[in-house]
Design goal:
By secondary structure, the protein is of the alpha+beta class. It is built from 6 helices and 12 strands.
């Protein structure tokens, strides 16, 4: 018995260090061992036995306990929380019920007890969604031998062991300290098929050990659930490896031996420029994606390594250097059709021919200018004059390279000094209007001539009207 106890203790230690999991399709085997107690009293028989479940927990008076390893069983998981179990137990019967209150514990000789049992057991742990506490119930049968005594005489005489088949029903529970080791308790009712073998309850308690799962690569994930059963892997990847420990399993990692980033399928980006090292022509220097990870200091779209002027922006056609401007007219030589002669952008770098207004245009300007009307004695325009000023502005815009003078004249009424001042104000009023409406002020010069240059007699009303005039002239 001591050797058996030592063997079972060693088995517990071995299993506890091998990361065994629950008894299911992964770990189909379990071993239970412990002590048992036999109670022949509360089984619905005449005295000295009693009614069903009467004094069911009267341990001191009715339970026959063998205080050593006295029960052992092995079970195998089948499917859907069902398992089958076979086991054996031994005991010694010294108590056989009671006679009322006068004899609360009827004693018999030290009778031998042996039993072999088999059960189909159902585990309720998954139904209550608890992994540490697992209640079970089972139904089965067995064969039990009890040595003949005073109340179980087979009529043979002597010290024979009376044996008979039994129908068994069991309720139990196991509490698991971890995935490997647990403690169990169980009560089993055994109904004999023969009158000479008494019905009885057998209670047991002890240690339960689960094992049997196959883990070929030793990664703690059973082959059934291991996507890579022959290679040590990680639970997060269903048992598949991550050699570079970058959080991306090797089968999905484009660079399985070098730690990288998920956004690059496990490949590294050393310089952090968004271009993976394998595609980065400059992997140690932060660069641009469109230049295969190489830098472009002058931002001209040409990688510095291929740029003849890396710090000065220039076109690819000139190897990254800017085009020159020989004549300094702002039009680079590559598009300047007159590279050695100052010109304008509008004329492709060539000088523009200034187009002067014709005599006909000048006469039209003069005709418009003579119809500019001012409020009497003031430099403010009459309302009908604004249409005339718009027409003059339009003509001046057609000749952007031409310059003009604006002259103001008065009649001889009033003092000469006041007429001079009035003519200057009126000439500047016309100039100010033209500037406000888009004519460059540098193109315009305003003069006031007072009453000095009459074009008609000041002696008549009609003549004085002609003398009160504004003139717009081409400045050559």
């Amino acid at each position: 018995m001591k050797n058996l106890s030592r063997l079972l203790f060693a088995l517990v230690l071995i299993v506890s260090f091998n990361n065994v999991n629950a008894q299911d399709q992964d770990n189909p085997w379990a071993i239970k061992f412990g002590i048992n107690a036999v109670d022949v009293y509360p089984v619905g028989e005449d005295a000295p036995q009693g009614d069903y479940f009467d004094e069911f927990f009267n341990v001191e008076d009715h339970w026959n306990i063998l205080p050593s390893l006295s029960t052992i069983s092995a079970s195998k998981y089948i499917s859907d929380n069902f398992s089958v179990e076979v086991g054996g137990s031994i005991n010694r019967i010294t108590k056989w019920g009671q006679f009322g209150d006068t004899t609360p514990s009827v004693r018999v000789g030290d009778l031998s007890y042996y039993a072999l049992d088999a059960l189909v057991r159902y585990n309720l742990g998954s139904l209550i969604k608890c992994k540490t506490f697992e209640p079970t119930f089972g139904i089965g049968g067995g064969y039990t031998w009890i040595e003949e005594g005073r109340y179980n005489d087979n009529g043979v005489g002597g010290t024979n062991n009376v044996g008979a088949g039994t129908l068994n029903a069991a309720l139990g529970a196991t509490y698991w300290f971890n995935e490997n080791i647990g403690v169990f308790v169980e009560s089993k009712y055994k109904h004999s098929f023969s009158d000479y073998l008494t019905k009885h309850f057998q209670h047991s308690a002890g240690v339960s050990v689960r094992f049997g799962g196959k883990d070929s690569d030793g990664d703690g994930i059973y082959d059934k659930n291991d996507a890579c059963p022959e290679v040590f892997g990680l639970e997060a990847f269903n048992g598949c490896p991550d050699a570079d420990a970058d959080g991306i399993e090797d089968s999905k990692d484009d660079c399985p031996n070098v730690a990288g980033l998920a956004e690059f399928n496990g490949c590294p980006d050393t310089d952090g420029d968004g271009v993976v090292d394998g595609s980065d022509d400059c992997p140690t220097v932060k660069g641009l994606k469109n230049l295969r990870g190489c830098p472009d200091a002058d931002a001209d779209g040409i990688a510095d390594a291929k740029d003849k002027c890396p710090n000065e922006a220039g076109p690819a056609a000139n190897q990254g250097c800017p085009w020159g401007d020989t004549d300094g007219d702002g039009v680079t030589d590559n598009v300047d059709k007159c590279p050695k002669e100052v010109g304008t952008v509008a004329n492709n770098g060539c000088p523009e021919v200034v187009v002067q207004p014709t005599q006909e245009v000048i006469e039209k300007l003069q005709s418009y200018a003579k119809t500019i009307l001012f409020d009497s004695g003031k430099s403010s325009f009459k309302q009908q004059t604004y249409e005339v000023l718009k027409n003059i502005t339009a003509i001046l815009k057609e000749y952007p390279e031409s310059n003009f003078t604006i002259e103001g004249h008065t009649d001889s009424q009033g003092s000469k000094s006041s007429n001079q001042s009035l003519s200057e104000r009126r000439a500047n009023a016309v100039k100010d209007y033209l500037v406000e409406n888009g004519i460059n002020t540098a193109r315009l010069t305003a003069y006031g001539f007072g009453e000095d240059y009459p074009i008609d007699s000041n002696a008549t009303s009609a003549g004085r009207k002609n003398n009160r005039r504004t003139e717009v002239k081409l400045r050559k």
